[in-house]
Amino acid sequence: MKLYPAIDILGGNAVRLVKGDFDAKKVYDEDPLSAARGWVEAGARELHVVDLDGAKNGAPVNLEHLKRISDELDVPVQYGGGLRSGEAVDDALAAGAARVILGTAAFKDPELLRRALDTHGPERVLVSVDVRGGRVSTAGWTETTEPSTAAVLERLYESGVRRLVYTNVDRDGMLEGPDVEEVREVVSSTSATVVYSGGIGQLADLEALAGLAAPNLTGVIVGKALYEGRFTVARALAVLDD
């Protein structure tokens, strides 16, 4: 499994939210590049960058930060937040993203999803499945859909999606650990690969996810636990590499 340290950008700063609440933020670094460089120097091999301003506004706002990170650090960066048009997807990839993550657009604009997959390939286009209260959440975590999570996963796979980022928003930023059984159900209900995010607070959480031994659970996104020093990148990699 891969480790993806998270750099969430809001107002030009690297921040973390609690349960996706834009008003419950903590600034960890005034420069996202500085935060990203710290994780890479600590051993990170991949980065997860989210444009929270873009998610809120419906169009990318922080592409210049993505470009700085991609230009100066020699690791793949996956990028999401506000990618709701073909132009936005193209701009993010042009700014250096190795992969883009579609959220709201994947559910509200199936034609955009189809074009993105056809143009850039399923390896470079991920879909973010963010779940709040047991339902998939869209529009920057402010709206929820009616179908069950399993139904959403099935529909996405039928649409050609082969890579997912799954976030339990209710656990995000809480440091209380993932619901391992929930993760087990998610990865067993889709043939797509899954990167998990939400609530990682200690090494035991990573060990529990790795212990699922699910071939399509390919990575985990960690934010607050790393920023708060709950464990180091090196120790996390040691667990996930095993």
Outline of this structure?
The protein has 11 helices and 12 strands. By secondary structure, the protein is of the alpha/beta class.
Describe this structure in words.
With 242 residues, the protein is of the alpha/beta class. The protein has a single domain (2-241), classed as TIM Barrel (Alpha-Beta Barrel), CATH 3.20.20. The chain contains 11 helices and 12 strands. An 8-stranded parallel barrel has the order 1-4-5-6-7-10-11-12, surrounded by 8 helices. Helix 8 (180-188) links the parallel strand 10 and strand 11 (193-197). The model has no long low-confidence stretch (mean pLDDT 93).
Spatial arrangement of strands, main beta sheet: 1-4-5-6-7-10-11-12
Silhouette: globular
Annotation field: number of helices:
11
Strand residue percentage: 25-35%
The portion of residues assigned to helices is 25-40%
CATH superfamily placement: Aldolase class I
**What is the rounded distance between the termini?**
9 Å
The CATH architecture is Alpha-Beta Barrel
CATH class: Alpha Beta
Computed CA radius of gyration, to the nearest angstrom? 16 Å
Mean of residue pLDDT values: 93
Listing every helix as H and every strand as E from the N terminus to the C terminus, the arrangement reads: EEEHEHHEHEHHEEEHEHEHEHH
Question: What ranges have pLDDT less than 50 throughout 5 or more consecutive residues?
Answer: none
Strand tally? 12
Q: If you consult CATH, what is the topology?
A: TIM Barrel
Number of domains: 1
Overall SS class: alpha/beta
